[in-house]
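Input sequence (102 aa), recorded before submission:
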Amino acid sequence: MAEPMVPNPRHAELQRLLVEAEDRAHEIRQAYQRASGAMRSGKVWTGPTAARWTTELEDRHQRLGRLAQRVVDAVEEELRRTPPLVTEAQANAARREMAGRT
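Predicted structure, token format:
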């Protein structure tokens, strides 16, 4: 007789982590838009130094957005590889591992 299947605590934790990663990625994508818009308006700071600073700010902002998306993608991939249901023994082992008691 097969063991009954129970929710995988690791899967649940990955789902929680995915929501958190998506929220943070959204914040990152929004983070410097106001500063960039203000700089591009020409009303805050002008000149060659201001233009270089604005370009650097936007480049770093784009890179940060790409990195945040890589985190989301990695969590999604791990979630796809993690079964939502496991045996009770596997769930207990996962809980011990997640608590650092392997």
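Checked by second reader. Residues 4 and 31 are 46 Å apart (CA to CA).
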